[in-house]
Design a protein that fits this description.
4-stranded antiparallel sheet, N-terminal domain of MutM-like DNA repair proteins, Helicase, Ruva Protein, domain 3, 21% strand, 261 residues, alpha+beta, 10 strands
Length: 261
């Protein structure tokens, strides 16, 4: 699932291309919006809120989308071949004179009043990539359930928005936290600060890097490295499912660098 920095980059590209442009054609290919026509409206801005995308339009409307596992937005010039996937995976087309934005495999696509955006993103905690990031609230949110694992608490978008499996896994390694470590035993301020530091460092990169080495196969300490030697101590990296049965995530850790207390 794309994380906050990936969504932030997507919104920046969309905003640079579409902000201030009038929509000349729209084509929604989801039943709930099949008859919707937004042509004539101006795209005012495209902003990220955690992992959510908000396209604010003139007339007080916002088009809300979310990538979930494999959704994406692609930009094309007039006449350019669309390469985001087969046509049946297209969910929406937003065309301006200079650009066409095509949304592929978007599991969430809905229109809301701009003054009612809280109905779709109001449940989110502080956005790690926001200039107005509320550190104190984020820390308090995570610490509010001391018996929960630090892994689950960091992934909960109601606590703080933007962290996904990559950052949660790498932050736990870098801080020496076992994935099942309870919040009460973790240095929560350090985890929040490091999460934000890593995401901000990667926000303009095409790849997510936690090791400082932006080369294929060398970008992570433990993420997706099950069975391989720890880069720090050589111990074999382990993997397991973590979380409630309906919301399990794969986790990775070094049993030597992240000992179970």
């Amino acid at each position: 699932m794309p994380e906050g920095d990936t969504v932030w980059r997507a919104c920046k590209r969309l905003n640079q291309a579409l902000a201030g442009q009038e929509l000349v054609r729209t084509d929604f290919r989801v039943p709930s919006l099949a008859t919707t026509d937004l042509s004539g409206r101006t795209m005012q801005e495209v902003v990220a809120r955690g992992k959510h995308i908000l396209m604010r339009l003139s007339g007080g409307l916002t088009l809300h989308s979310h990538f979930r596992m494999d959704g994406s937005w692609h930009l094309y010039r007039p006449g350019e071949r669309w390469r985001g996937g087969p046509e049946h995976e297209i969910r929406v087309v937003l065309a301006t004179d200079p650009w066409t934005a095509v949304g592929y495999r978007l599991p969430v696509l809905e229109l809301v009043s701009t003054d009612q955006e809280s109905s779709v993103v109001g449940h989110l905690g502080p956005d790690l990539l926001s200039p107005a990031f509320d550190r104190a609230t984020a820390i308090a949110n995570v610490e509010s359930d001391p018996g929960r694992t630090i892994s689950e608490a960091l992934l909960d978008q109601r606590n703080l928005a933007g962290i996904g499996n990559f950052y949660r896994t790498e932050v736990c390694f870098l801080l020496g936290l076992h994935p099942w470590c309870p919040v009460s035993d973790a240095d929560v301020p350090a985890a929040v600060d490091l999460s934000r530091k890593l995401m901000k460092a990667n926000v303009r990169n095409a790849a997510q890097v936690s090791t400082g080495v932006d080369r294929p196969g060398q970008r992570s300490w433990v993420f997706e490295r099950a069975g391989k030697p720890c880069r720090r101590c050589g111990t074999t990296i382990l993997t397991a499912q973590l979380g409630e049965p309906t919301r399990e995530r794969v986790t990775y850790w070094c049993p030597a660098c992240q000992p179970e207390s």
